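Researcher: Sequence recovery benchmark, item below. Answer with residues only.
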């Protein structure tokens, strides 16, 4: 196993890592919309928060030499399913 730590993504808080590579697979930890430079959630709307989460995921993937095109599966958790049409695109 190889632990992935990407400097352009929010640091892992607690006893986990941003991602772990095993063989040809990369398992990424969940992301929240923290802006790495400030350490804060800056977006106030669900669309902005979703975009920040994707940016964080892209940074973790880049740290492993991958891109969003390498993603096979992702899961999104929403507090309000009414937000799904806003974040799905």
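Model:
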């Amino acid at each position: 196993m190889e632990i992935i730590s990407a400097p352009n993504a929010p640091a892992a808080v607690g006893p986990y890592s941003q991602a772990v590579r095993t063989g040809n697979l990369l398992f990424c930890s969940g992301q929240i919309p923290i802006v790495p430079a400030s350490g804060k959630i800056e977006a106030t709307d669900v669309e902005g928060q979703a975009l920040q989460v994707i940016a964080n995921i892209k940074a973790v993937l880049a740290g492993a030499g991958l891109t969003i095109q390498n993603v096979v599966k992702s899961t999104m958790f929403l507090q309000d399913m009414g937000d799904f049409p806003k974040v799905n695109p």
